[in-house]
Amino acid sequence: MAAVSTLVDRIYRDFLNKPDDLSAFSRLDGAIDNTTTTVIYEDGLLSSEEENLLAGGALIEVNQELMLVTNIVSSTRTLTVSRGYAGTDKDSHGDKTNMFINPTFPRKSVFDAVADNISRLYPSLYNITTTNVTSNSTYAEVPATTVSIVNSWVQNASGDQYTSAGIELLTNFPPSSTDTAVQFSNTASGKTVYLVVKRKFGRPTAETDDLSTACFLEDSYHQIIMIGAVADIMGATDVDASTQEFITEKLSAENYPIGSGERLRNALLRLRSLLIDEARGDLRSLYPQAVAIGNINYSA
């Protein structure tokens, strides 16, 4: 199981943090809650030049929260800060948590880019999962974010084989706790119906969300998410030439060379599109679409 934080960390490691990029950071000397406006940082981790960066107007980042420094007392390593800067959430932070100074790529921005790209995968790509329901005369709930039924099987009356079940998907359906359900056509009540369903991906709300169980994301899609997130970050941030060169070298090492004169962000978007096309072809070959007749789906 991998959390969303692993993708965020990989983006920093593989694309945004050059090997020679030694960002100035210290650690909290004591935990803080979400209302504290004074922050004490550890002794001995900052050079005098780095400590000078903490003058009024500097930004510090702790986890995903940005704080604006309004005053510093160097003798006691105490910062007065304005919490939740730039729309980040005020949060509690533990003792010894890393504190980054003037981050070039704020962690909240990288997380948001990852979340956006997970959401944008659908409808080009989607999650396929299996479930089973019991047929009845009303409806049966199916997993949230289900958008279509790919296949359905039910045992025939003689019990010697399985045939396609007539299924109608009900979306935005308030009686269901998942807002999604199926109802049955030409299927006797009390039968176990085995379903293969297509789902949208779940948008993460925290770095601790699991990529598989919360976002329904296949491991093979991680690279697509990272490439798209980096492209978004480059579109929103003035990225220095050395970082662009580092990203270009990384892509070339993975056999994705950047064309001569091609803008790096455009190259990243082109690569994302190619990776999506490959994954979409694999999905279509594995899961042919069901045939719909009168809003009733029958397995292909």
Q: What characteristics describe this protein?
A:
single chain, 300 residues, alpha+beta, Thrombin, subunit H, six-stranded antiparallel beta sheet, four-stranded antiparallel beta sheet, 6 helices, elongated
Protein described:
This protein is an alpha+beta fold and 300 residues long. Among the domains are: 24-103, Thrombin, subunit H (Beta Barrel); 127-199. The protein contains 6 helices and 15 strands. The protein has helices at residues 4-16, 48-52, 107-120, 222-236, 241-253, 264-286, and strands spanning 25-27, 38-40, 59-62, 65-73, 78-82, 98-101, 127-134, 140-141, 146-155, 162-163, 166-171, 180-185, 192-199, 291-293, 296-298. The chain has a 6-stranded antiparallel sheet, with no helix packed on it. A 4-stranded antiparallel sheet has the order 7-13-9-10, with no helix packed on it. A 3-stranded antiparallel sheet has the order 8-12-11, with no helix packed on it. Strand 3 and strand 4 (65-73) form a beta hairpin. Helix 1 packs across helix 3, helix 3 (107-120) packs across helix 4 (222-236) and helix 4 (222-236) runs antiparallel to helix 6. 30% of the residues are buried. The mean pLDDT is 90.
Question: How do the strands and helices of this protein lay out in sequence?
Answer:
Layout (H helix, E strand, L loop, with lengths): L3 H13 L8 E3 L10 E3 L7 H5 L6 E4 L2 E9 L4 E5 L15 E4 L5 H14 L6 E8 L5 E2 L4 E10 L6 E2 L2 E6 L8 E6 L6 E8 L22 H15 L4 H13 L10 H23 L4 E3 L2 E3 L2
Antiparallel strand pairs: 1-6, 2-5, 3-4, 3-6, 4-5, 7-13, 8-12, 9-10, 9-13, 11-12, 14-15
Helix pairs in contact: 1-3, 1-4, 3-4, 4-6
